[in-house]
Amino acid sequence: MPIRTTSLAAVTACLLLAGCSEKAAAPAPEAQAEAPKKSLARQVQFYQGQDNVQAITSATVKAVAGGGYDLEAKVTTDGGGWTRVGFLPRVYAATPPDGIYEVDVVGDKPATPGAAGPTPVEVKSGWDRYKDGRVKGVKFISKTNEVVAMVGGS
């Protein structure tokens, strides 16, 4: 009898301990941010002294009556003295599926640093590469951010 009682106590203890060692429910995995969309464009090589502007504040794309588009962006450079600030369209092998084309907003950096601190610059240019209505929007790219502007502001 004592063996039976001892073995029964041992089995009960094992079952109780097994219940205690049960793992707590794993916390629900956090929603992960969507991976950035891979660009289908190839960046054009910059000329010596050219670089992306620091940031883009706002941008617009307007269709022109004869075809083409007017691009406009308000940007900031990392100091004064930047020259020839403009748009450098990226190269595509085929039409982007979403119709949004990419342009780098670039300028010539000053040879000697100008006034320190962010300097606002307004950039305007015509773009007549695609006149067949395939452009739905333009993604403007700087060092620190990207801004997508749809044609007509929609």
Briefly characterize the structure.
Helix content is 12%, strand content 42%.
Textual characterization of the structure:
The chain has 154 residues and is mainly beta. It has one domain (41-150). The protein contains one helix and ten strands. It has one helix spanning 2-20; strands spanning 41-42, 50-52, 55-63, 69-79, 83-89, 91-92, 100-108, 116-127, 137-141, 146-150. The strands form three sheets. Strands 2, 5, 7, 9 and 10 form a five-stranded mixed sheet that branches. The longest helix is centred in the first third of the chain and has 19 residues, at 2-20. It is elongated, with a radius of gyration of 30 Å. The chain starts with a helix and ends with a strand. The mean pLDDT is 84.
Approximately how much helix is present in the residues? 10-25%
| Computed Rg | 30 Å
Q: Tell me the total number of β-strands.
A: 10
Shape: elongated
Q: Report mean pLDDT, rounded to a whole number.
A: 84
* Count of runs of 4 or more consecutive helical residues: 1
Spans of 5+ residues with little confidence (pLDDT < 50)? none
Order of helices and strands: HEEEEEEEEEE
Structural class: mainly beta
The main β sheet shows up as: 5 strands, mixed
Termini separation comes to 87 Å
The overall number of domains is 1
Strand percent estimate: 35-45%
